[in-house]
Structures
1.
Amino acid sequence: MTAARYQKIQAILAKRQADLTVLAEHIYKPHNLSAMLRSCDAVGIGTVHAVDPTGGVPTYNETSASAHKWVNLHVHDSSQAALEHVRNQNMQVLAAHLSDEAVSYLDIDYTRPTCIVMGNERDGISEAVARYADAHIIVPMVGMVQSLNVSVATAVIVFEAQRQRRAKGMYDQPQLPAEVRQAQAFRWLQPKQAARCDEAGVAYPELDDDGDIVWETLTETP
């Protein structure tokens, strides 16, 4: 382990936006889900939600640039379960949906706790989600095509969210508690040891400034 890698991970976790997320509803093309995760990681979204991704278990490919290693994907059995989960975190629910009530994605305040729901290119979001959402948003188009690829649309929207949040200084101070950041850093840097600790039900040991395990802080050897 190198100190530089450990410090980079700490810097990344310090900018994670705990109250900003994306819900991928029935995104059945693995490369789209992979690309969505990549964009989310790029703007500091640490957790993405999904409903029934390909085969029930996400499949990743080279387009993700290993983003699935750095973004937690929370898979739900239903859209209702996913929406209840984010609503319990007091998030506004914005559905990317072409409707008579839809507004430009630029007219939304993303500095509020926010969940952005994206549907697949064939069917869009479900009617249940459309009814549940606080607002419908679109990316205005001035060409012949009506919409963007879902992964591209996701990138456009989340980077606007990043722009607004940066302007408000929301990346300047960590949103995640120190113990949460440290635990996530341990899982990334020491995945095998983290799995052993989880299996044994013991707390993770501390990491030194180089990201190496301080063994004497391990409460019980897994």
2.
Amino acid sequence: MSNIQLYNGDCLEVMKQIPDNSVDLIVTSPPYNVDLGNNKYNRNPYSLYKDNKEHKEYINWLKEIFFNLYPKLKKGGRICLNISDGKNGAVPTTSDVIQFMSEKYLNIAHIIWNKQQTSNRAAWGSYLSPSCPSYPSPLEHILIFAKEDKSLQHKGETDLTKEEFIEYAYGLWTFKPETKAKKIGHPAPFPEELPYRCIKMNTYISDVVLDPFMGSGTTGVVCKKLNRNFIGIELDKKYFEIAKERINE
């Protein structure tokens, strides 16, 4: 039976309550800083969070969060960070994240998530002209880092199948994004397949998984299905209640 702990608040404040060296895996997808809500391809904004920070401010904000999460991870504990670049790849968010994370964490993997589709497919730039074309991307990134050691420091029971391991141990993951954002009630939920793969490949049964940007609670839903313990933090009260309901169901 999974132990589920849900917190409504700013992750920088809430994480102070989490004991050091207690988390086995962090699976999360922070806001992408793509001006959600004012972007013509997604008119649904976050309720509280303003998704259009100046890029350097955004990167420094992420750095502060993930450096403060470092003590919470066990030695060998890992982070699976789902991120995307802005403006069809013109804003190098992924590269900047890798650079600052490498100051403190060990790099394990850079997985390309092929979503097979993109909402802004017709953002051509200079249509039918080489003047200034744009290149909409169906790809996102899943960056995996570890604390101090790339190997888990404890033994446990795995539920990975041979077929899953062979498929997931590959730097290109192909599955579709979440298509029910409106029904779920959150502007940018990721599909269950994403945390499912990350959790199965990086934890044993009953390990502790943290999502500091819980959103609609998808990571928690998967943890409950896979018998992992889960800690979820969400700033917005509305999304927090959605997550709590989804996880309880």
3.
Amino acid sequence: MYKTSTLGYQTMLLDCYNTKVPLMVYGGYGIGKSQIPRQVFIELAKTKNKTFVEWEHTTDEEKNEMIKNAEKYFVFCDQRIGQMDSTDLRGIPNMMDTEKLKTIPYAWVIYFTQKNADGVIFFDEINLAPPTVAGSAYQIINDRCISDRKLGDDVFCMGAGNRMEDKANIFTMPMPLHDRFAEVELTVDEKAWTAWALNKVNTHLVTFIAWKPSRLYYTNLKRGDKPSTPRAIHRASTLLGDTDITTDRAFELIAISCGEAFAAEFQAYAKFYSELNWKTIYENPESVQKFELDKLWAVAGGMADQFLKGVTDKVFERMMFVTQAMKPDFAIVALRMMKDGNKKKFMVQMKKCANFQKIVNDNAMYIID
């Protein structure tokens, strides 16, 4: 099966939405199969001047409003076929009609079958559904009909599921259903995740992944061990909050999210970070030239963390002198994390630096788009 990165997946989503060709994406658990489409379609809704709404997060009153004024909204509807039976997609029989059999569709079906409806029906974990239930999706995906109603012209259908090697107890999808989809496998993309994670995930966790990229998606574990995934790392960041990363409490919070092996390796990074004397580093930038490689990761992550929390122009200038003294690979990591975290602020403070031109000349491809 064709494999793609995050950027390729984003492009395919737009291509398939524009042509209304249904897309099925496979991939390991927790790598962004469902989160990336949400981000893509949030941005698309903005370009169409429509309000992006996640159907399952709305009240009954809001659902009625969306059905009544469908043209104002872009609706993302996550439907878990694995949790349905075969009648759920067809609707409930209307026993009050004695002349002919009709069904009463669910509210989300009524919205997406409005002529001016716009949005995405996302069949997540579709291959967790038994074949008899998955078969109910045939008509929706291929014929764009549901419960005897036609989907709106702007409605896009897609699905997502784990792979056989993920041990998720999936069913093999019937070949006719395979044939109804364009199909792709999403792979882990450390650079794309890092760019996304800044300002959303603890900066030190982002730096740790830059140091140990294999830990972004690590599932080759003994039975009973907990894997690390992009979703797990985001969860760890949420639990950490403002917790000091060098404490035992931080180790516990990371361990329950990403596993003890991940937490133990992160603890090594935290130890290097705790040993840094920032006053000495900023007063004597050349001192970092004697640092071991592991410690340089802590310097890069520490400066990025400080920058994103807010530093004066004077401190920022000292940071730039440090990047000039560091080995190029680590300087690039620090500069990219600062820029990706807050590009506007980064460029404003950069232009105030005495060594601005030299930094730009040395690292232009990494700090200027």
4.
Amino acid sequence: MGEIRAEIEDMVHRETRAWNAQDVEALVELFHPDMIWPWPPSSVDHDPATWIFALGRYNRERWKTCWEELFQTHRLIHNKREIRKIELSRENDAALAVVDIDTLWRDRQGRDNHWKGRVSKGYTKMPNGEWKLIFHTDVLRY
């Protein structure tokens, strides 16, 4: 089980490095083809009944375009991430990583876009043994 936890930690760190480098290709390589990412309207809307899908089901080109636009219009000020928990399924084929993030983007007009709070990242083991991110909740404050 320690080996699987290390693989999941590596997935979280790979994602962090991709954000830091603003590497769109590295980001999209992490995602399962059936990835979904629901978003709350704000970081304090914990009731999932209020959540929406800003990007819809994973679509490589659409998601790349979204992040390329972010990278072109914003500067990354800082990106701090701390893994709080990794939970594995009994079958060792699914994992949940709980991560506290503090990511600050600033646009050209000096306005901040601050991602600060806790996210949940769900991973699934593919038939070839590779792990992929299959769901992600947006940032919530706890």
